[in-house]
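User: Let's play a game. I give you a shape written as tokens, and you guess the letters that built it. Ready? Here's round one.
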């Protein structure tokens, strides 16, 4: 009977049921605290982009040095620290790991505001990058334990795209306004102080679900190398991971270069970009995350393979929508098209994370998400902006200021192999489920 259920794509029964120890209000309270933690993560991540110009003027920096500050250096410390911290979360007290990391990156964000030279600021940002990857993997792992399978997609959607949208909005709008009124240093302070308070709440209020009686007997300890080998043997995990990393090559490119595209090709002003467009993107990501979480919960209950098919469908539908947006002649037309495209593409992540958690195994949840973070940073954020810039420079000779428009249109094509990867992942998903 169990084999038949798996072959048909139905959700399998779980051997461990820790969510039974939590009442709905408890789950929602813990999710709220974890949501705020993820929002703080993205707030501290995105705020630098709005502060680059005043930092450049004060320290007399080149664009290459700004690239080091916000790109390579941050990504390096983020990638190196992510897997060891996730391993600690899989073996130890996850709320404690989250609280320590949250406190750490908040203190380092405050240190950014106290920096008196470029190199002090660079070291502080390296510190932010070293602590930030510790929160999301452990938080997702807890959410999977405290929510039943039919409710996980919505919770994971809020924790991923929902928190990202709110954090982006805070970083761009709130951070920009504070910097304009009081200076860029106070913007860093404003991002740091709530995180320090929140770290104490996480430590005091969020329990470790593994300590509950419904979690079952402790699972055998597994080495880090063994965990990675087991994850890589899962074809569904590998294909879904490939899909989201390839998709990020495109999304990282548009997140960095769309403001420049709007300035160059649409002649938009800073208010339109920082306020109108910023709010529309944040709202679209939030709506997409909620819609994606609901759809993944409904469809995944019928057939677990929808956790891979839904991202494939949303990525395929996003291709023509982004092309329409990038072909817009004016800002208003672009805003409508881009908002629709953002909503559609934001449907994918909740289902993607559900797929990963279904196959990775309960003792490897944080490690699995850390592998995603590492791969996403190295592949998605490493290649996307670089390829876009190279293609834009090549097209600039023929198309001038519209070279970036056509470069971004080319980058949309990365969503096509992402669709194929998700489709292949769906073929293996049902038979590789591990509780």
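Assistant: Ready! My guess for every position:
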């Amino acid at each position: 009977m169990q084999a038949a259920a798996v072959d048909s794509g139905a959700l399998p029964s779980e051997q461990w049921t820790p969510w039974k120890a939590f009442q709905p209000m408890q789950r929602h309270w813990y999710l709220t605290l974890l949501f705020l933690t993820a929002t703080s993560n993205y707030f501290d991540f995105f705020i630098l982009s709005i502060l680059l110009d005043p930092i450049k003027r004060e320290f007399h920096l080149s664009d290459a040095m700004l690239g080091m500050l916000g790109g390579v250096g941050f990504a390096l410390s983020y990638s190196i620290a992510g897997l060891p911290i996730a391993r600690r979360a899989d073996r130890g007290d996850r709320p404690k790991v989250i609280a320590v990391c949250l406190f750490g990156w908040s203190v380092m964000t405050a240190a950014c505001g106290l920096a008196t030279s470029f190199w002090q600021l660079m070291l502080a940002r390296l510190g932010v990058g070293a602590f930030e990857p510790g929160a999301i993997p452990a938080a997702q792992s807890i959410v999977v334990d405290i929510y039943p399978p039919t409710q996980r997609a919505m919770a994971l959607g809020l924790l991923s795209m929902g928190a990202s949208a709110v954090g982006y909005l805070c970083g761009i709008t709130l951070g920009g306004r504070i910097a304009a009124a009081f200076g860029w240093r106070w913007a860093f302070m404003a991002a740091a102080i709530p995180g320090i308070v929140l770290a104490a709440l996480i430590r005091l209020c969020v329990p470790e679900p593994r300590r509950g009686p419904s979690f079952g007997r402790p699972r055998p300890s597994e080495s880090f190398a063994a965990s990675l080998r087991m994850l890589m043997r899962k074809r569904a995990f590998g294909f879904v991971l490939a899909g989201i990393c390839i998709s990020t090559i495109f999304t990282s490119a548009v997140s960095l270069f769309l403001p420049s595209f709007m300035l160059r090709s649409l002649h938009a002003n800073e208010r339109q970009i920082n306020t109108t467009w910023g709010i529309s993107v944040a709202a679209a990501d939030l709506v997409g995350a909620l819609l994606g979480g609901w759809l993944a919960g409904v469809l995944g209950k019928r057939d677990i393979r929808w956790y891979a098919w839904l991202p494939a469908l949303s990525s395929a539908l996003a291709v023509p929508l982004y092309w329409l947006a990038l072909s817009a002649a004016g800002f208003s037309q672009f805003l409508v098209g881009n908002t629709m495209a953002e909503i559609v593409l934001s449907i994918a992540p909740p289902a993607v994370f559900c797929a990963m958690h279904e196959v990775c195994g309960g003792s490897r949840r944080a490690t699995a998400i850390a592998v995603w973070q590492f791969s996403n940073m190295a592949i998605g954020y490493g290649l996307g902006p670089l390829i876009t810039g190279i293609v834009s420079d090549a097209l600039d000779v023929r198309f001038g200021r519209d070279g970036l428009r056509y470069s971004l249109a080319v980058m949309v094509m990365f969503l096509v192999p992402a669709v194929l990867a998700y489709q292949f992942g769906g073929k293996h998903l049902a038979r590789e489920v591990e509780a």
